[in-house]
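Table S7 (text form). Paired inputs.
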Amino acid sequence: MTVTALIDAIPDYGREVARNLQVLAEDETLTEQQKWGCFLACAHGIGVAPVVRAFEAEAQERLSPEAADAARSAAARMGMTNIYYRALHLMQNREYLALPTRLRMNLAAPTGVDRLDFELWALAVSAINGCGACLDAHEDELKKHGVEPAVVQTALRIAAVAHAASRVTASAEAAASF
């Protein structure tokens, strides 16, 4: 399945989602690597099979193998760290903040991809996972390097639309099985 096929498969009740997906696929605020890496990281962060397949197909055409692996890595890392740091943020007992994390994390970006692209993808997946601490940390890193607010906003829009497209796709599949 391609992104075009994904857009076409979204039911009428999700037409705003489909339209936003189309608009973002054509948006030029991000570089091609930033944009398609963001879509791929978000798809993997959510894990709805048809959406993952659609963005994997796009990644084959638009990203180097290293960039695609880095986007997948952003989803995997945030899948772990977002849960941990979101829990610390939500818990009232602040003792846990003083303890070492004891989760293995290589803080450098994977080889073959710009660190700021990786930070952008991690920010988008953190938005999907609802981790305020991680959102702040990744946004701070991007701001330190002069990344414009419009770039951050576009990554957040991609996260929102990828999430909505995944939910609509999963719901439509579930309804079709009745």
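Next pair, protein 2 of 2.
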Amino acid sequence: MSEKFSPADLSRIIEMAWEDRTPFEAIELLYGLNQHQLIKLMRRELNAGSFRLWRARTSGRSTKHLALRSPEINRGYCPSQYKR
């Protein structure tokens, strides 16, 4: 699976997966990985402890699923996230 992604893409996928406000659907739209495939990729790419932390963080988090999101959340990042 990771063979089809460049190291830069793989790094960005992992970064997006860790971001609280980036829904799984955005990763699927950009990289073609559904939630199940993303979990497999994360399990393979992260060390075991980091994977457990990531799963605990994303399990049940409404912002990671578009269908569960509040309509007030209409962007994928915090306004202060990319300050210059």
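The chain has a mean pLDDT of 81.
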